[in-house]
Design brief:
5-stranded parallel beta sheet; 42% helix; Rossmann fold; 5-stranded antiparallel beta sheet; alpha/beta; 429 residues
Length: 429
């Protein structure tokens, strides 16, 4: 069967979706990926300033630990375009000495209008300038994220703007420009637009048009859409998704664990474990956009980024009951031989409460970072202009502010403490 694709939007969407579903999301491996001790600057407009996908990313970096000793900071600014960010990189981001940076611009760059050649050129030029500034400052890994889409239903409920379908054509085109700019500048591209568009279509088909993925206002996503954004950036950062593997030999009763987990004891099918590496945990009602659980069915987050495996070898029974925390499920011996993903099979698990505690500390950190940058750090150059004789004091204030932010980020890392838990594996009689 032949398909006739006539409109520019259809052609652009086909290209973007093909890029997501066929090609790797990014060449992060060629850029070295995350390295131990990296500091990640998460930059963008008001969607970043919502402190949702940025918290998800920092949660993942600290608890899931794709590599060790990572730090994250959030630098969102409401209403910002890419050219506005260019003007504040040096004074507001570089003082924190990032080695990795992610950006997410385009929503405001499109001006909520049809595609325009002048705005296209400005966005391309600003993307190039962002990469150059970061690279000149020694930032090793630079991830250029595309804009996401506007919501196909809620966006149209607000008067005075163009239709969602038209503006999504603009955003799809800016996604193309971001991809080309990243490739030409040797940066990494994070395709946010394609997975959000596909998840939005699938989730609305199940939950209805009122289930927004790009926000109640059509622009600013709730937690569900932000999880899709975090997924795109974490993939672009080169995260493998291997949280850990527990292997139990049913014949001799021995157990082993991979890095980040330590077997404390094994007795009669009960494995006691101490873990310093957490799986990513979810909570909330699937029908509530303020919970990320509703999109998990349509997003391969657990499969690609959140694998905590239990493997059972040499079993004599055909079925086993696996109990983890307060939950129990029955699996076949064949399933356990292949390995089951505990993080996906047991959403309520022994890590849920510790994960939530760390998440609260991360939110406290990022809640401070927004006014620290926007209300304090941003205005320090004016102090130097008006009171040049107080330059030393202004520099001391700047240093104090950076120290405070770094102390809060250290508190976020310190909140990740070992979790003791047990897995019980019993043959079903």
């Amino acid at each position: 069967m032949k398909y006739c694709i006539k409109s520019p939007l259809q052609r652009t969407l086909l290209w973007i979706c093909a890029l997501w579903s066929v090609a790797p999301l990014s060449p992060a491996a060629s850029a070295g990926g995350l390295q131990p001790g990296d500091t990640v600057a998460i930059c963008g407009d008001s969607i970043t300033e919502q402190r949702l996908y940025s918290v998800f990313i920092e949660d993942y970096l600290l608890m899931c630990q794709p590599v060790t000793n990572l730090t994250g900071h959030q630098f969102g600014w409401s209403g910002e375009r890419a050219d506005g960010f260019v003007s504040r990189i040096n004074g507001e981001v570089l003082p924190f000495h990032p080695t990795v940076a992610t950006t997410c611009y385009g929503m405001n760059d499109g001006a909520y209008a049809p595609i325009d050649a002048g705005r296209q050129a400005a966005y391309r030029k600003s993307t190039e300038a962002i990469v150059k500034q970061f690279r000149d400052a020694g930032v090793r890994l630079i991830v250029i994220g595309s804009p996401g889409p506007v919501d196909s239903d809620t966006f149209d409920r607000f008067g005075g703007r163009i239709k969602a379908a038209t503006y999504n054509q603009t955003l799809a085109d800016l996604t193309r420009i971001a991809s080309e700019g990243a490739r030409e500048q040797g940066a990494v591209f994070a395709n946010v637009y394609a997975p959000m568009t596909q998840v939005m279509q699938a989730a609305k088909a199940k939950y209805g048009a009122d289930y927004h993925v790009a926000g109640a206002d059509g622009i600013h996503p709730a937690a569900n859409g932000h999880l899709v954004m975090a997924y795109a950036f974490l993939k672009a950062l080169g995260c493998s998704g291997d949280i850990g593997t527990f292997t139990w030999d049913a014949r001799n009763g021995t157990a082993t664990a991979t890095e980040g987990h330590k077997i404390a004891s094994t007795d009669k099918g009960v494995i006691e474990i101490e873990s310093t590496r957490y799986p990513f945990c979810f909570s909330g009602k699937p029908t509530d956009p303020n919970s990320p659980t509703g999109v998990l069915e349509f997003l391969p987050f657990n499969e690609e980024l959140n694998r905590l495996q239990l493997v059972v070898h040499n079993s004599s029974a055909t079925q086993f009951t696996v109990t983890w925390g307060n939950q129990a499920k029955v699996f076949t011996a064949a399933q356990l031989e292949r390995g089951i993903n505990l993080a996906a099979e047991f959403p309520d698990n022994p890590f849920s409460a510790p994960f939530a505690r760390v998440d609260n500390v991360v939110r406290t950190q990022q809640n401070f970072e927004t006014p620290a940058v926007k209300e304090l750090l941003h205005h320090l150059p004016s102090w130097n202009t008006l009171l040049p004789e107080e330059k030393n004091q202004v520099e001391q204030l700047k240093a104090s502010l950076v120290r405070k932010v770094k102390a809060l980020s250290q508190s976020s890392r310190n909140a990740v403490t070992p979790v003791k838990h047990s897995i019980k594996i019993e043959p079903v009689s």
